[in-house]
Amino acid sequence: MTSVKFSDLGLADPILSALRARNHLTPTPIQVEAIPSLIKGRDVLGIAQTGTGKTGAFALPVLHKFRHPRSKENIRRPLALVLAPTRELAIQIGDEVGAYAAKMKLRHTVIFGGVRENRQISALKRGLDVLIATPGRLLDLHSRRFVDLSGIEYFVLDEADRMLDMGFVRDVRKILACLPTGRQSLLFSATMPREIARLADEMLRDPLRIEVAPQATPVDSIEQSVFHVAAGGGKTDALRDVFADPALSRVILFTRTKHRANRVADQLDKMGVPAAAIHGNKSQSARQKALRRFSAGNCRVLVATDIAARGLDIEGVTHVINYELPNEPENYVHRIGRTARAGASGVAIAFCDPSERKYLRDIERLLKMPLTVVGDVPKGEERAPARKQARGAKDRGGKTGGNDQSHKPGNGRKRRRRGRGKPSNRKQTKIA
Fold it and tell me: Out of 31, 48, 134, 331, which could bridge 112 as a Cys pair, Cβ 3.0 to 4.6 Å?
């Protein structure tokens, strides 16, 4: 695929000019597969891991299709609709569409909740060609007749599996019912659970299926490791250790909870590591301010919940730290995909305390490989990770060690009968 250029894909000259201005000359594999078929009018079902260029794969064909300015008749009816699960992703798609359309007279706007609607309504009244939206705000404005979806010719559902995770599938179906039946449709998703497969059957007609990487697998250029830490203050100590390395210059750190995100950002600031937090409890303006600070290099760490695990494309992220392991293993893959983007390499570091061993096992089962263990397992906690540690040490040429007796199924059953799981539950509550 390296010999293929954007100029080979049949895109209009103004789009190629905008791509050259951004020094985007070589398309990604999903762009090579999708763009020519979309230009020809095919529906597409795209399955691709994060960071593979999906936005360009659907945005460039829509710009090509609507490259000629429209007359003012029916200008309030957008021609293309892109549906995204989160505000941040919608804004990012809008920025990309604006950059690709820099040499064209094409109007677009982004609408999402969490902010005042006046400016969004004004943009809709002025008229536009491409509308990028989140489901809730779009349905609200449509129900109040501020949005006319009867002219949609091109519909994109991005991050469909994330829509499912966030409970938006019912809203998506309501929006589909408002669209013309003769439209061209695209569905992009990193994974294909059963519910999303059913949705694809409902909205796509004889789609071309494009799968550029195995489902839920991280890119190969991410170096992954795990630190086993003690309960209590072990993660704070690990933070000090890892941030002593200046190579961690632009880091996204993930927590499971909003409260924890705030606490970790405060801890990092006190350590002299500039940090900003982003999560669902923060206002949209505060979230955008944190993203701008991080993107501009004014803070070293962006501390986030899984709101930032998908779709955000920030250049130059050197490391991802899983301060708390996700309870859904697929979210680990999406989190670490914030680094090693656009062909770069990256590093993913996980902290695992005793209460998170099950999450680690689930992640390693999904990846079909153990994470490389860095350092030692805390004394008295060698049982759960011993086999993984031995395997990692062997790969690095070290001694394998470990007590094989600790892995016998009977040992785990005896411990559960004695303690009835109470100590483990207390540790879970402590970090929640």
Answer: 134
- Residue 402 belongs to what H/E stretch? none
Residue 216 has a CB neighbour count (10 Å cut-off) of 18
> Do residues 183 and 246 both lie within one domain?
no
Q: % helix / strand / coil in the chain, to the nearest 5?
A: 45, 15, 40
Q: What gap in Å lies between CA 428 and CA 432, rounded to an integer?
A: 6
- Chain centroid to Cα 174, Å, comes to 24
Structure tokens at 386: 């011993």
Give every CB contact of residue 301 below 8 A, 6+ residues apart in sequence: 251, 252, 253, 265, 268, 273, 274, 275, 276, 294
Q: In what order do the strands lie in the sheet with 301-304?
A: 275-278, 301-304, 251-254, 319-322, 346-352, 222-228, 372-374
Report the candidate in 355, 351, 322, 353 with the shortest Cα–Cα distance to residue 255: 322
Count, residues in the chain = 432
Q: How many domains are contained in the chain?
A: 2
Q: Among the three residues 177, 211, 245, which one is the final residue of a domain in this structure? A: 211
Contact 260, 325 (CB under 8 A): no
Q: What is the pLDDT of residues 104-160, one digit of tens each?
A: 989 999 999 988 999 999 999 999 999 999 999 999 999 999 999 999 999 999 989
